[in-house]
Amino acid sequence: MSIHRIAVSRHSVLPPIVPDSDKKFLDSIQRYIISEIEKVGCTEQGPAEEYYTIYRNVFDKIIEHVTAYKNILTSIKQEYDAFIEAIKKGQRNAFYLHGKLKVLASEPTTLVYYRKRTIQLEDKIKTIERNSARIQNLILKIRNIRKVPSTEALTPRKKINPAKPIPASAVSSISHIFEHDPSKSKEAEDLLEYIERFNELFSYGQYETAAVYAANCPRGILRNEETMMKFKALGAVKGRILPLLRYFEALISSSAAVRHPLCAAMTLEAIKCALSEKQLNLVMHWVTQQRLTFCEAAGDVIYDYGDVEPFNKSKCLALAQIAYNQCGMHKKAALCLCKQGQICGAMDYIQQFKNLSFDDYLFLLKNCPSIELIHCLTREWNGKPALLSIGATIFSLIDTDHKEHGLQLLKEIDMGEKNALEQVILNDTVCTLEGWKKIADTCAENKHEKLSQDIISILTSQEGVVQLSPLDDDDDAKIMEHVFL
Asked: What is the tally of helices (H) and strands (E) in the chain?
């Protein structure tokens, strides 16, 4: 096996979570390694021969245990043995050459040559030591091997394997770094090791540590939706805080330090996750820290949560208002103010934006049909003309479940100053005569006959307005048409 092939295999992905039986076996293997190291008196720097013997025995035990992979592991071990033998041979050659160099050092004609050769050999030894370290790392990875269920067995259940190495985007980012700047191969290698360490923590159930590890990853390679889905696939873990919530907490807490605020899609998922765990105070903390990127859907989730916990309704409205304001949904932000009883505050807020439409004002009326709001929208405000005409407002309300509010406004006008209702109708440039006729019909249908008659009287008394009879013979048709002569 060539050095190139070994370097490539180093990037192989980790298998799924190790079952209990394999964990017990791995624990016994670990105890064996520790005890053998203590027996031979190995230190962290060596001797390498004793380390090799110990890990060779360990590899044999693993091969015997993982029967499903016995053939391929045996082949791998043979390749490792051959490679390590080559390393030992290189070390022996290096030792021999060092000795020969001492003998020939006294010969002036060859002194420069052997000095140069010494440097070359030292570099080669360092290369061999690095390769040895990589081989040991591969041996450690083999410890995580277990029998993987067949694809056919998993397909009908459509389960997400939480131990599946992730994410593809992270690997793509690493490849991007290396392809565009080969000099950064060391950085790419470090990033890959970072991902492998995260997968190791995740596969052993150390979810809280894995969450913090992912949140603080270099270049944000694990701060993405793929990693989020990995945590989400776990669901609830008995006796622990929801792993997905831990991941979001770590992301948002570290967002200022890594200068990488949560995107809108993940902000929405974070809020949903927190509220599903009844952690409204946590959402409040996130919002006030200004580390989120809001969208309309996120505001809707917070707004709707006020119906789930009515005693927290005011908090939800205040938080939703912030979310709507930041994502530019001004009509919904104003609605939150109205729902909190801050009608004047809502009017001041509305006056700041010139892009609100007639439909936006009707949206407010239909969702918060208070008399105070109707008055504010249909009258001058801070020296500025009314935002809505009274006729259009009443006409819109009678088509909804809030027609009583419209009728109440009409009664207040009719009971006010003399000719007030007439002035309202005549000065209304938005609501048509047909619209006022429908308003009058609605008044009659709701037992406000006098109010209906007053409106009809005002309409028919205007110069140029004639009441015409229906043009057909249908006895059921009772239509009043107004024609401008």
From this structure: 24, 2
Q: C-alpha angle with apex 91: 89 to 96, nearest 5 degrees?
A: 95
Amino acid at 75: S
Nearest to 433 by CA among 369, 385, 479: 479
Domain boundaries, the chain: 3-149, 329-388, 413-485
**Band (300; pLDDT cuts 50, 70, 90):** very high
Tokens 């420069």 -> residue: 112
CB atoms within 10 A of CB 83: 17
**Residues 83 and 135: beta-carbon distance below 8 Å:** yes
Residue 216: is its pLDDT beyond 50?
Answer: yes
From the CA atom positions of the chain, what is the Rg in Å? 39
Token pair of 256 as six digits: 């200022």
Q: How confident is the model at residue 313 (pLDDT cuts 50, 70, 90)?
A: very high
Q: CB–CB of 251/235 below 8 Å? A: no
Question: Which residue intervals of 381-427 are DSSP H helices?
Answer: 390-397, 403-414, 420-427
- Over residues 147-162, the pLDDT tens digits come to 334 333 333 343 434 4
DSSP secondary structure code for residue 413 in this structure: H
The DSSP code sequence of 73-120 is: HHHHHHHHHHHHHHHHHHHHHHHHHHHHHHHHTT-HHHHHHHHHHHHH
Please give the model's pTM, rounded to 2 decimal places. 0.56
The two three-digit tokens of residue 395, written as one number: 């006409």
Query: 41's torsion region: left (phi>0), alpha (psi -120 to 50) or beta?
Result: left
pLDDT value of residue 477? 36
Q: Cis peptide leading into 167, omega within 30 of 0? A: yes
